Design the sequence.
C-alpha cells in the first residue's frame, strides 16, 4: 500500500504543478457547458415551449374566423396577433412583417368566409328538398380564399398542421350547418320546434402521456441534455492530459526507470487512473453545481439531478473510468504528444458526435441511432437520462455502467498488451 | 570455493524487429562482485541494447542473463530490488522538487518513511544539493540534475548499480563530485556496471572494461593491462581507436 500511496501522491503533485493543464481540465469544460447550453436553449425551447408568432387577419368576424381565432388564442404554442384593418393594407403589412421575421406565419380569413360555407351547404341541401319547401331565391355559391403566408424557414409539417386545422374548422362548420339545416327541414315537415343542438363535447378524446422515454413527463431541455452530455465530453477530453502525462514520462525516461524498480506496472497504472478518475468526479461535481445553481441565474432551466443518488454516482464513476482508460490507451499507444493530441481530440469529437453529445441520439435517423449505440459517450448519456429524465434507479443505470466499465477494462488490457509487445 | 559472478551473460543476442543485423551478437560476459565494470564502444555498438537487456527493459532474442545467479523469468522482483539504474536521460519529474522526486523513488523501493527521509537528507547534503532541495528540477542546472538523477537510483543502497552515460553534458566540478561519490559507493560494496563514450573517465573509474563493436565483445581486461598490451598506446582512447578504427560511426 505504501507504494500505491507514494504513486498517488506523485500523480497529485504533478497534476497540481500543471496550472495550464488544470485550467484546461476544469475551466474550459465549464465555459463549454454554459456556452453550449445557452446556445441550444432556444432550439430546445422551439421544440418544447417557445411560442410561434402568428398574425391573423380576421375579416370574417363570424363562426369560422372567430372560432379559429379563439382556439389559436387558447393554444400556448402560438403567440397570436389579430389585425382588423382594410383587407389589402392588412394583408400587405402582414406579408411584410412575416418577410421581416416578426411573424412565422400570416393567416388571412376574408370577409364572408363563414357565409360562403353556409350558402354552399344550404344550396346543396336545398337541391334535395321538394320544390314546395325549396328557397325560390337561393344565394350564389362562392369559393372561400383563405390566404396563408409563411416565413421560408417554417417547416412543412407546421404548415400542414395549420392548413389541417383550418380545414377541420371549415368541416366542423359545414357539419354544424348541415345538421341545423336538416333539423329545420325536419321541423318544417313535422310541424315541430325541437331546437335540436349539435353536442358541443367531442366524441373522441385524446389522452396524451409520455411513455418509456420520459416516464414522469420530463422531456429533455437544454440543461438536462447538455449538462450530462458535455460533462461526458469533458471527461473524455481528459484523455489528452492523461496521454500527454504518460508520453512525457516515457520520453523523460521515468517510465523506464520505474520499470527497473520492483513495483507492479498495474499499481503504477491504477494509481494514475485513480487520480484522473477523481479529477473526472471533481469536473462532474463542478459542472453539475453550475447546472443547479448558476444556470438558473442565466435564465436557463435548473438542472434536476433525479432522485437516485446511487444511480447517479454509478454512472458518473463508470464514465470516469471509461474516459480514463481511453486516455491511458491513447498515451500508451501513441508515439508522441502531437500524435496523441491529434488522435485524442479527433477521436473524442467523433465519439461525442456519434454518442449524441451535440445532437441527442433520439433525434438521429435510424442508422445513426444504431451507430450511436457504439460510442461509450452514448452509454454515458443514456445512463444519465435514466436518472435525470426517467427517474431510474441504480439497477436501471447498471447495464450502461457495465458497458463503460467493460470499456475501461478493455482499454487497460490493450495498453498492457501493447506495452508488453514493445519489450520484445 | 570461488563465489559466483554477480552478472553472468551467456550467448546473449538481440535482433530488433525489421532489422537483419543483430544489435548484440552472441556475447558472453561476467561481472564480479565489487567490480567497476565499463562497457565501452562507439555509437551503435550495442551498449544500450546490452544494458537494456540487463535491466529487463527489453527481451533478448536468445541467450541468458543471470544476476546474483537469478534469472528474470522467475525472479524479476528479487533482481530489481538488488539493482539501481541511472540512465542517460534525466529520468525525473521536472515539476517536482528534488526532495519530492527522491521521496517518490524511495517510496517505490519500499523504504520506510523515516529511513527514506534520513537517506534523502544525507544524500542531498553529500552532493551539495540540500539548499536547493525544495526547488523544482526544471530550474536546476545540468550538473545538479545529473546529481539528483544519480541519487534517485541509489537511495535504496543497491548491490548492483547500472550507469548509462551518467556524466553526459555536465561541468567538471559536477563530474568530479559524481565520480568521488561513485568510488565511495564502490568502496562500500556496490558493484558498478558502467557505459560511456568518455574513455578518460572510464580509465579512471573502471577496474575492468570490455569494448563492444557491432554487437560483439572485441576486447576485455583492466584499463592498465589493455594499454600495456596494445602496441603504441598511451591511453584507453588509443586502445579504443586501435580496435574500433578511426571511421566515424552514425
Sequence:
Amino acid at each position: 500500500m505504501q507504494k500505491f500511496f507514494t504513486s498517488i501522491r506523485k500523480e497529485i503533485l504533478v497534476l497540481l504543478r500543471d496550472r495550464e493543464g488544470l485550467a484546461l481540465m476544469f475551466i474550459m469544460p465549464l465555459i463549454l457547458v454554459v456556452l453550449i447550453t445557452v446556445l441550444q436553449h432556444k432550439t430546445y425551447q422551439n421544440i418544447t415551449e417557445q411560442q410561434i408568432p402568428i398574425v391573423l387577419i380576421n375579416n370574417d368576424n363570424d363562426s369560422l374566423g372567430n372560432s379559429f381565432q379563439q382556439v389559436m388564442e387558447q393554444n400556448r404554442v402560438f403567440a397570436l396577433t389579430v389585425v382588423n384593418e382594410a383587407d389589402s393594407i392588412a394583408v400587405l403589412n402582414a406579408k411584410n412583417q412575416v418577410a421581416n421575421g416578426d411573424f412565422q406565419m400570416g393567416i388571412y380569413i376574408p370577409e364572408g368566409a363563414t357565409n360562403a360555407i353556409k350558402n354552399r351547404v344550404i344550396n346543396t341541401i336545398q337541391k334535395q328538398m321538394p320544390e314546395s319547401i325549396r328557397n325560390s331565391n337561393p344565394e350564389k355559391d362562392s369559393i372561400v380564399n383563405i390566404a396563408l403566408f409563411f416565413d421560408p424557414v417554417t417547416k412543412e409539417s407546421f404548415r400542414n398542421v395549420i392548413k389541417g386545422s383550418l380545414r377541420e374548422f371549415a368541416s366542423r362548420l359545414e357539419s354544424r350547418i348541415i345538421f341545423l339545416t336538416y333539423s329545420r327541414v325536419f321541423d318544417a315537415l313535422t310541424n315541430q320546434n325541437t331546437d335540436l343542438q349539435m353536442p358541443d363535447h367531442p366524441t373522441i378524446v385524446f389522452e396524451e402521456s409520455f411513455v418509456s422515454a420520459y416516464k414522469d413527463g420530463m422531456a429533455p431541455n437544454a440543461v438536462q441534455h447538455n449538462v450530462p452530455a458535455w460533462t461526458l465530453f469533458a471527461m473524455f477530453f481528459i484523455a489528452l492530459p492523461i496521454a500527454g502525462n504518460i508520453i512525457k514520462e516515457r520520453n523523460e525516461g521515468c517510465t523506464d526507470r520505474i520499470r527497473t524498480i520492483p513495483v507492479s506496472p498495474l499499481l503504477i497504472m491504477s494509481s494514475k487512473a485513480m487520480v484522473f478518475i477523481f479529477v473526472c468526479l471533481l469536473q462532474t461535481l463542478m459542472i453539475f453545481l453550475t447546472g443547479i445553481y448558476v444556470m438558473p441565474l442565466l435564465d436557463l432551466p435548473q438542472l434536476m439531478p433525479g432522485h437516485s443518488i446511487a444511480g447517479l454516482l454509478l454512472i458518473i464513476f463508470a464514465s470516469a473510468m471509461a474516459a480514463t482508460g481511453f486516455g491511458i490507451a491513447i498515451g500508451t499507444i501513441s508515439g508522441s504528444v502531437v500524435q496523441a493530441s491529434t488522435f485524442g481530440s479527433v477521436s473524442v469529437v467523433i465519439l461525442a458526435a456519434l454518442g449524441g453529445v451535440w445532437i441527442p441520439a433520439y433525434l438521429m435517423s435510424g442508422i445513426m441511432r444504431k451507430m450511436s449505440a457504439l460510442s461509450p459517450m452514448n452509454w454515458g448519456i443514456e445512463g444519465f437520462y435514466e436518472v435525470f429524465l426517467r427517474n431510474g434507479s441504480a439497477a436501471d443505470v447498471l447495464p450502461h455502467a457495465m458497458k463503460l466499465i467493460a470499456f475501461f477494462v478493455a482499454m487497460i488490457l490493450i495498453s498492457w498488451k501493447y506495452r508488453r509487445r514493445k519489450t520484445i | 570455493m570461488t563465489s559466483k559472478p554477480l552478472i553472468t551473460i551467456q550467448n546473449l543476442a538481440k535482433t530488433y524487429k525489421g532489422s537483419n543485423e543483430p544489435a548484440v551478437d552472441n556475447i558472453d560476459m561476467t561481472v564480479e562482485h565489487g567490480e567497476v565494470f565499463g562497457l565501452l564502444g562507439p555509437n551503435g555498438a550495442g551498449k544500450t541494447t546490452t544494458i537494456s537487456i540487463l535491466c529487463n527493459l527489453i527481451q533478448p532474442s536468445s541467450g541468458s542473463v543471470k544476476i546474483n545467479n537469478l534469472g528474470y523469468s522467475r525472479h524479476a522482483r528479487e533482481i530489481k530490488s538488488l539493482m539501481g539504474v541511472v540512465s542517460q536521460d534525466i529520468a525525473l519529474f521536472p515539476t517536482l522538487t528534488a526532495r519530492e522526486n527522491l521521496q517518490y523513488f524511495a517510496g517505490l523501493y519500499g523504504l520506510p518513511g523515516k529511513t527514506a527521509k534520513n537517506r534523502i537528507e544525507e544524500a542531498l547534503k553529500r552532493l551539495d544539493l540540500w539548499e536547493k532541495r525544495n526547488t523544482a528540477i526544471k530550474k536546476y542546472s545540468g550538473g545538479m540534475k545529473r546529481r539528483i538523477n544519480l541519487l534517485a537510483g541509489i537511495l535504496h543502497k543497491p548491490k548492483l548499480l547500472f550507469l548509462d552515460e551518467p556524466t553526459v553534458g555536465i561541468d567538471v566540478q559536477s563530474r568530479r563530485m559524481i565520480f568521488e561519490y561513485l568510488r565511495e559507493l564502490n568502496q562500500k560494496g556496490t558493484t558498478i556496471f558502467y557505459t560511456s563514450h568518455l574513455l578518460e573517465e572510464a580509465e579512471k573509474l573502471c577496474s575492468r572494461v570490455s569494448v563492444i563493436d557491432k554487437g560483439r565483445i572485441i576486447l576485455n581486461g583492466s584499463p592498465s593491462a589493455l594499454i600495456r598490451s596494445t602496441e603504441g598506446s598511451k591511453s584507453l582512447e588509443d586502445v579504443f581507436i586501435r580496435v574500433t578504427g578511426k571511421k566515424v560511426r552514425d
